[in-house]
Write a structure and sequence with these properties.
Strand content of chain A: 25-35%
Strand order of the largest sheet of chain A: 6-7-8-3-9-10
Distance between the termini of chain B: 31 Å
Number of strands of chain A: 10
Strand order of the largest sheet of chain B: 1-2
Largest sheet of chain B: 2 strands, antiparallel
Largest sheet of chain A: 6 strands, mixed
Structural class of chain B: mainly alpha
CATH topology of the largest domain in chain B: ABC transporter involved in vitamin B12 uptake, BtuC
Radius of gyration of chain A: 17 Å
Oligomer: heterodimer
CATH class of the largest domain in chain B: Mainly Alpha
Mean pLDDT of chain B: 82
Number of strands of chain B: 4
Radius of gyration of chain B: 26 Å
Number of helices of chain A: 10
Order of helices and strands of chain B: HEEHHHHHHHEHHHHHEHHHH
Shape of chain B: globular
Order of helices and strands of chain A: EEEHEEHEHHHHEHEHEEHH
Shape of chain A: globular
Bound molecules: adenosine-5'-triphosphate, magnesium ion
Helix content of chain B: 55-70%
Number of domains of chain B: 2
């Protein structure tokens, strides 16, 4: 692929106090790609996503987005460069209605495209339309996940980062979510960076993927390559070591 | 607490027996709990010896209250509540067509408040009305305004502020000092006091930006105390604990409310009375309250208001949506403080006297309790809570008949905090989310649909 690089993570080390959670990570995401990051619990996947968003900030290394160094930028300014995130644990606003949650997502453009975009979200996730006046906190887990993704999309992102979108979902619902991601990528060229425990689904969906072990990238390649790789199969696909 | 029994399965006889049993048990418990605290009192006699004064009568009153209270609760209140709950469950859900009063509640309330002074004047005459307009009217409205101001910080932005009275003090002293030393009028100083308070709100905001919950509460508490201590110790300017007296009254666009030839009464050829000034103050604070409400309602629909509410729910999510949480918090502190400052300058002008004693922590606590009781974020609920709490304590002053029960030394005002506390405990048991516990959504696209608001707890998936 010869597309332009959108996100580049180079030699990033992130610490929680004295504990080094990321030990020199290099990751690259090109425009129009779906890139996934797989790894065991505690490998540092969420940490990498949060480091890209600037909280916590990388102690060593650089994060570049669209040619701009964002390593030391505050989180809200990074978000304004159109990096949207559905963070671990979804973090929707529980006391606000679905509709208001979506409005919050459109804060960046001050609701300019809200009416247009909200219809797109309702078309993508019809469940949200049914539940638009319900409070976020009373949605089911799957509906909350849909809302978290939709809210992130309301910001018209250049890069969408999803942390474990299939967590706790029934197989059918997680299939719907992955189908939605694929659709957005194919029809709108949306670039997606995906963290997943469900390695099989993630690798099948992704153009490229990275494997993170104890804070370092140990393997990378196309989704199909990693799916075929015996080590990956043993560790992440066949209910093996982890 | 006893287990709630289903009234349909328990016959009336056994219910009474059960109630008697539980009431007796409660009475015995109460007896042992209070026998040393209430039943006996240490005192000094003529020879400075410590003696024990028994107060069996008072103890008996306490035990009796516990007995009958528990009996009434088990025998009548619990079955009644269970029955009404069953009836509610059985009845078809019919919330779509709320009554006329409910729909136009705020309009009717404002109308009632506007008509309140003339009606009181008509009923009680110029002299008799003072108490109702001043103690019940103005006093309550000051608290409504303070609570609405604090509501922006606590109810909307979710920043627990225990030192709100500091901004009230800044407003009051700003008006007092600037009007005495420079002779500025209230109408110039009102906005100025608001600005100064907002400024102090930002000063407080900066150091506490990173704090949350309990830590934030402690620092704001300290801030409130610091302001009070400065007022006490900076004697050259504030005259310390003596306070500042002789603060000029407010004029109606230059027309003073006094006996002078160009005073209000003379100009309008009315008999001289202090009631006009009180009525004027009543309408002024009402106007200030309405301004607070209007601004709050408008802000909730603007990006900044939405950001406050989102901030209260999830700060990390806010940042990842591009919201600058620093400025969002600072504006909440500043705007909340500004309304505290308005209320403060009004307070100073109304009293004609300010001293640090008016700005103790207890005031912050009372204002915060009103916000919590009313249901955080709900203007109507907070107004009701202010009326109940402040009006209730004012009523206590009137209750001389209590002296007949508890003896001539009994001063009901001293028990106002006890009653305040009891009311809070009862409220929190009955309605854990306050009088108006459900948050009103700000966005409606199609029809105005009521949102399931009766739940008391949200899941997080
Ligand atoms: N706030 C924190 N303070 C201290 N240590 C942390 C913090 N957050 C994460 N860690 C540690 O950093 C390491 C990486 O955590 P991270 O959340 O990135 O893992 P993960 O790969 O996302 O795991 P999972 O698949 O379980 O979500 C873990 O060892 C974790 O204990
Ligand atoms: Mg994680």
């Amino acid at each position: 692929m010869t597309a332009e690089t959108l996100l580049k993570v180079e030699g990033v080390e992130t610490f929680y106090g004295n504990i080094r959670a990321l030990a020199g990570v290099d990751v690259e995401v090109k425009k129009g790609e779906i890139v996934s990051l797989i790894g065991a619990n505690g490998a540092g996947k969420s940490t990498l996503m949060m480091t890209i968003c600037g909280s916590p900030q990388a102690r060593v290394g650089t994060v570049t987005f669209d040619g701009q160094d964002i390593t030391r930028m505050p989180t809200h300014e990074i978000a304004r460069l159109r990096i949207a995130q559905s963070p671990e644990g979804r973090r929707i606003f529980p006391r606000m209605t679905v509709y208001e949650n979506l409005q919050m997502g459109a804060s960046l453009d001050n609701q300019k495209f809200f009416n247009e975009d909200v219809e797109k979200m309702f078309a993508l996730f019809p469940r949200l339309k049914e539940r638009q006046f319900q409070r976020g906190g009373t949605l089911s887990g799957g509906e909350q996940q849909m809302l978290a993704i939709a809210r992130a999309l309301m910001a018209r992102p250049k890069l969408l980062m999803l942390d474990e979108p299939s967590l706790g979902l029934a197989p059918l619902v997680s299939k719907q979510i992955f189908a939605a991601i694929k659709l957005l990528n194919e029809t709108q060229g949306l670039t997606v960076f995906l963290v997943e425990q469900n390695a099989f689904a993630a690798l099948k969906l992704s153009h490229r993927a990275y494997v993170l072990v104890n804070g370092s990238i140990t393997m990378s390649g196309s989704g199909a390559e990693l799916l075929a790789n015996p080590e990956v199969r043993a560790a992440y696909l066949e209910g093996g070591a982890h | 607490m006893a287990t709630v029994t289903n009234p349909s399965t328990v016959s009336a006889g056994s219910l009474t027996a059960k109630a008697l049993r539980e009431a007796t048990f409660t009475a015995v418990m109460t007896f042992f709990m209070f026998v040393l605290f209430i039943g006996l009192k240490t005192d000094q006699n003529m020879r400075n010896e410590l003696i024990l004064v028994p107060r069996w009568g008072l103890l008996a009153t306490f035990v009796a209250i516990a007995f009958f209270g528990r009996f009434a609760m088990v025998a009548w209140l619990q079955p009644w509540r269970a029955a009404s709950k069953a009836a509610k469950d059985a009845a078809p859900a019919d919330t779509s067509d709320a009554g006329f009063v409910k729909r136009n509640f705020s309009k009717l309330a404002i109308l009632a408040l506007v008509l309140y002074p003339p009606i009181i004047l008509w009923l009680f005459g110029a002299q008799g009305s003072l108490k109702y307009i001043d103690n019940f009217g103005i006093q309550i409205l000051i608290y409504v305004m303070l609570a609405w101001g604090l509501n922006i910080v606590v109810g909307l932005a979710g920043l627990l502020d225990l030192g709100y009275v500091a901004f009230y003090a800044v407003g009051a002293y700003s008006y007092a000092l600037l009007s005495i030393n420079f002779g500025f009028s209230f109408w110039i100083l009102l906005p100025l006091a608001g600005i100064l308070s907002a400024f102090w709100g930002i000063i407080l905001g900066f150091p506490v930006l990173r704090l949350k919950g309990d830590y934030l509460a402690i620092v704001t508490l300290a801030f409130g105390e610091i302001i009070r201590l400065v007022l006490i110790n900076w004697q050259d300017v504030t005259q310390g604990t003596f306070g500042i007296s002789g603060i000029p009254k407010i004029t109606l666009f230059g027309i003073p409310f006094d006996a002078s030839p160009h005073g209000f009464a003379k100009i309008f050829h009315l008999p001289m009375s202090s009631a006009y000034y009180k009525v004027f103050l009543f309408y002024l604070i009402l106007l200030l309250c309405l301004l607070t409400a209007f601004v709050t309602i408008r802000l909730r629909r603007l990006p900044i208001g939405r950001a406050w509410e989102a901030l209260r729910e999830d700060e990390i999510a806010c940042r990842s949506l591009g919201i600058n949480t620093v400025t969002t918090k600072l504006t909440a502190f500043a705007i909340g403080a500004m309304f505290g400052g308005f209320a403060g300058s009004f307070f100073a002008a109304r009293q004609g006297f300010v001293s640090p004693e008016s700005f103790v922590f207890l005031e912050s606590a009372v204002i915060l309790s009103i916000v919590v009781l009313g249901g955080m974020g709900s203007l109507t609920g907070i107004a009701i809570a202010a009326i109940a709490m402040v009006g209730g304590t004012e009523l206590l002053r009137e209750m001389d008949f209590l002296k007949a029960v508890f003896g001539p030394d009994f001063t009901p005002e001293l028990y106002r905090m006890l009653i305040f506390g009891l009311a809070m405990i009862i409220m929190m048991l009955v309605r854990p989310r306050g009088f108006v516990g459900s948050r009103e959504p700000t966005a409606f696209l199609f029809e105005r649909k009521s949102v399931s608001g009766s739940f008391t707890k949200e899941g997080h998936g």
